[in-house]
Write a structure and sequence with these properties.
With about 190 residues, the chain is mainly beta. It has two helices and twelve strands, in the order βαβββββββαββββ.
Length: about 190
């Protein structure tokens, strides 16, 4: 397996739609950077946030990935979002990704947010998965934490396998294929 470099990422983005929209250089602005880096791509948050609207305090009020109650979540469009301590928000990437069959992509959070106690969780981008990322952003700190739309939130690194997989995400008709908005857990 090999880690893919900036020239490979740029070629795949411009010729094959790996990342859309694609920013071919690292853009530093106030806040976390975004765009192409030496061995990855720093993706941004869109303006869409989906947050938990606390359900009535009942014994059966449990977040269960097998039975998510969509009524417990509200969607908001905003330029920024403040996450209360010990809470999380779901967001989506501004970029749309198309992963080749011989590639697995992994995500890590940006250090600027990590230093504020903000953790970013995205599962691996499997071979032949495509869509906008649904990103879980958790505030582990004791104070509210602000995140910003349009700013970098995480870095994607692309790993090329030594051979093509037998069954891709597209082959198995994955339940999150082609998502373009924040998608709650599906069982």
């Amino acid at each position: 397996m090999s880690l893919k470099s900036d020239w490979w990422i740029q070629r795949m983005a411009t010729r094959h739609g790996l990342i859309d929209p694609f920013v071919g250089a690292q853009v530093s602005q106030p806040g976390p950077s975004y765009g192409l880096s030496a061995y990855g791509y720093d993706f941004r948050l869109d303006r869409q946030f989906r947050h938990l609207a606390l359900p009535p305090a009942t014994p059966d009020a449990v977040l269960d990935p097998r039975a998510i109650n969509p009524a417990w979540f509200m969607t908001t469009e905003a330029d920024e979002w403040v996450i209360p301590p010990g809470s999380f928000v779901l967001a989506r990437s501004l970029e749309y990704f198309r992963i080749p069959r011989d590639i697995l992509a992994l995500c890590t959070g940006k250090s600027t947010y990590a230093r504020c106690g903000v953790l970013v969780n995205v599962t691996p981008l499997e071979p032949e998965w495509e869509g906008s990322l649904t990103v879980a952003v958790a505030n582990t700190g004791p104070l509210p934490a602000r995140i910003h739309a349009g700013a970098g939130i995480g870095q994607i690194v692309f790993l090329q396998a030594d051979g093509v997989c037998r069954t891709s995400y597209r082959d198995k008709q994955g339940k999150y294929q082609g998502q373009q908005s924040i998608t709650l857990a599906r069982s």
